[in-house]
Amino acid sequence: MKTVFIDCSPKRKFSASGFIAVMTSLFVFGSKKKMKLRTKSDHEGILKELEDADAVVFSMPLYVDGVPSHVLPFLKEMGGWCRNNNSHIRVYVIANNGFIEGRQNEPLMQVIENFCLRSGIEWCGGLGIGGGVMMNVMRIVIVVQLILTLISLIFTGISTGNFFDGQILLGFLKSLAEVLFFGCSIIMFDIWLATCINGKKEYGKHYTRIMVPSFLFIIFADIFFTIISIVKGGIFRGWFSKKRPASYKDF
Amino acid sequence: MRMIIHDLDEDFNERLKTKSEEVIWADGKYAPCQGCFNCWTKNPATCSLKDSLHEMCRVVGQADDVVIITENCYGEYSQAVKNILDRTIGVSTPMSTYRGGEMHHTLRYGKKGKLKVIVYGDVSDNEKATWKLMTERNRINHGYQLKELVFVDSIADLEVSKI
Ligand SMILES: Cc1cc2nc3c(=O)[nH]c(=O)nc-3n(C[C@H](O)[C@H](O)[C@H](O)COP(=O)(O)O)c2cc1C
Which residues of chain B have a CB within 8 Å of the CB of A229? Predict the structure, then answer.
């Protein structure tokens, strides 16, 4: 059995979609291939991989309540390709969005279902994940913490001779547990999706989210964007101002 | 002010210009969004990509009512139109709030009047249902008070005077 995972985020690195694709693939058996869909030049390579694939998993961000624009020409090309090759490939989708409600991914899910219907391929359902940005931030935080923990273990080891300081290790395990707690529902739904891929079964449509109450999530998100905007300087360049077009026309 | 965003041909573009104060032709000659959020965090309401959509969110921001004419693509906007929508998220700010019991961004240019979406081409019943949901979600996210969704079988049925 061969499963192709397509990371449809336009980001070159550190996309939430890529991360979820990798996480899902950990629970999928058989041969696996992870592809990136950013530009038209990626189409050919992906279609080549689909030739002998049993299932394809689209992992994509929600853009303006739907599918990112650069994915649409690929769907059209793949649709034609599927009809020409009489393909019966099974299609799954994992959508992640910035807002906390995973259910906001519903229109995207329907677009992919419509695509399958028109292309004569098997729609097997998908998972909509709310709070994708936070999940992405959390996994980066964990990696940074892991590095910091290792550094402090080494330094304490050099000064005290004990390279496995319990206190430091415990601190790391605690933050790891926190991340696993916030992500527990996503991981569960993800394993369930992988089980369906393995069993060649339909998954249906399911929605989940980061396990944070939404009012807290909104505060986190606002703090996150404030910090980024201070670092990038946008906050000092008319952050909220009703900017008028300079190079277009007079309004 | 009423703005028309469409993916039709040049001839139609000229005819539409006689009808509306502002017409944006989604000719597809621009790059897709790169997902960098610089239009929120670095240079507000400005896209980092320097093509014809560089300041498009400022242009769209000026409109009170927006009419979108698009070909159907599985219940989604055509690539050319969707590209414009993706590249104009700077019409909102990065700050989030509750709207209608859900999380949404606050609006840089405030509440809008009406969003009218005209979909042409072959549209299945499933796709019609998706369009209903999609345009309603867009209406809420972009802060329009009203929404109208129209399906036409072919562009030939589209009367410029009725847009
Ligand atoms: C152009 C654009 C439009 C977006 N529209 C929405 C939206 O309508 N609803 C939402 O919840 N998140 C929206 N987001 C947020 C993304 O879905 C979110 O950041 C996602 O986690 C990005 O995934 P990635 O890292 O795989 O690209 C949008 C992001 C961008 C760049």
Answer: 40-42, 94
How many whole angstroms separate alpha carbon B118 and alpha carbon B140?
18
Q: Which residue, A68, A219, A200, A47, is CA-closest to A122?
A: A200
Q: Give the ipTM of the model, two decimals please.
A: 0.97
Q: How many structural domains compose chain B? A: 1
pLDDT of residue A250: 47
pLDDT of residue B2: 93
Task: Give the global pTM.
Answer: 0.96
Burial of residue A139, with CB atoms counted within 10 A of its CB: 0-12 exposed, 13-18 middle, 19 or more buried? middle
For the Cβ of A15 lying below 6 angstroms from any atom of ligand 1, the answer is: yes
Q: How far apart are CA B11 and CA A58, in angstroms?
A: 38
Gap from A249 CA to chain B (nearest CA, Å):
9
> In this prediction, what percent of chain A has a pLDDT beyond 90?
89
Give the DSSP per-residue string, B69-133: EEE-BTTB--HHHHHHHHHTGGGEEEEEEEETTEEEEEETT--EEEEEEEEES---HHHHHHHHH
Burial of A165 (0-12, 13-18, 19+ CB in 10 A): middle
Per-residue pLDDT at A251 exceeds 60 = no
Band (A249; pLDDT cuts 50, 70, 90): low
CB contact (8 A) between residue B96 and residue A222:
yes
Helices (H), ranges, A161-208? 166-182, 184-198
Range of the domain at B125: 2-162
- pLDDT for A140 beyond 90: no
Give domain limits for chain A. 2-133+183-215
Cα–Cα distance between B143 and B139 in angstroms, integer?
A: 6
CATH of domain A2-133+183-215: 3.40.50.360
* C-alpha B112 chain-centroid distance: 13
Nearest beta carbon to residue B133 from set A70, A107, A249 = A107
A187-201 average pLDDT score: 98
CATH of the domain at B109: 3.40.50.360
